[in-house]
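Researcher: We're teaching a course module on how sequence relates to structure. For the next exercise, students receive a sequence and then see the predicted structure as tokens, so they can try to spot secondary structure elements on their own. Here is the exercise chain.
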Amino acid sequence: MPALDRSADAPGPGGALGVGEGRYHGDFELPRSAAACSSHAMKIEQLARPSVLTQPVYEPGKPIEYVARELGLDPDGIIKLASNENPFGPSPRAVAAAIRALAQGALYPDGGCYELRQRLAALHGLGADQFVVGNGSNEIIELLGHVFLGPGDEVVLGAPAFVVYRLVAHLFGAKAIEVPLRAWRHDLPAMAAAVTPRTKLVCVCSPNNPTGTANTEAELIDFVRRLPEHVVCAIDEAYVHYMPSLPDFRALIREGRKLICLRTFSKIYGLASLRIGYGYASPEFCALLNRVRQPFNANAIGQAAALGALEDAEFADRCARETREGRRQLEQGCRALGLEFVPSEANFVLVRVGEGRRVFESLQQRGVIVRPVGSYGLPEWVRVTVGTESQNTRLLSELRGLQLASPRRLPLREPVSAG
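Model: And here is the predicted structure for the students to work with:
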């Protein structure tokens, strides 16, 4: 290695940087191009990957505190029915377990999530090595991108469907192939027909977000079995606990199908703020995802709360039962108001209100937060989370006050692509 220039133009550590051919900084000589960077001649955006500069930004639902400050409202009078959260909160056992874990807050969490994976294995009748735990199930979708996606690859997904599938495809330079829904459900034959030699990943959300519709277990099993060998399938089961019965895809995993099923503790278990979810697949599949997973990605408080939630099946069952009752309340209320809606199997209802953004803003002024879905290609609709009985009553009353009822019932319109 050549000796560093320590002349007057390049003084040692602590001195002013010179203006010679090379400039000394610490133990390294910076060339002219690096010197230009240090003087801010090059913008930071010029160093980023091109796909990052065009990456769409996910817009989360507004928190109650933000809306209260923005509109000068009393936060205690605001109800949030926008992000499909559990209005009944987490199980008391989950809360108690989280509080106990706080006492060990100075220690790193179990990076392998050993105890949680053991408990999930017992719940699902699978091996502990068949689970990967994430910072929410969203992180596992990103891990799929890290392992399988690159420039030129394709990801087949429904439209509209959970926007993160499209965001992850774009992030890794892959192309999102969006297949319009049929009768508000994933058009599985059309999705199968959209698979090409470049397809690496297919994503199916069932029940689907934002429509709340689900494909049957038999339809999904047949779909996965028909996929070619070079395609990985992800079935997102975030809302599966709100269905009358849970589908079972474990036989596909035992057959060696390239399938991963995703679940979350954010919905039925009421742990959205702790960001914890999981996927289950073959041991080989999970081993690949664990190779790219960050160490300690699932925090100790979230792990403890998840274990506590799994020990309180009675609470989760009650949340599911009351959510189904609340869903019927909302659907009956919308029917009485003359508002079209998509029959749902999730903890939300997609409602056609005319100008979705305007209705969203009007309801927000009245202290009710719902979700506009124009970004999903549905500008006439809003997505409404099922709340408690009193919250649902409040929402329906506010909708009535906006006088949204159409003079005549219109047939449900097919969704359009969000691409």
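Model: If you want an answer key for the exercise: The radius of gyration is 25 Å. The chain has a mean pLDDT of 89.
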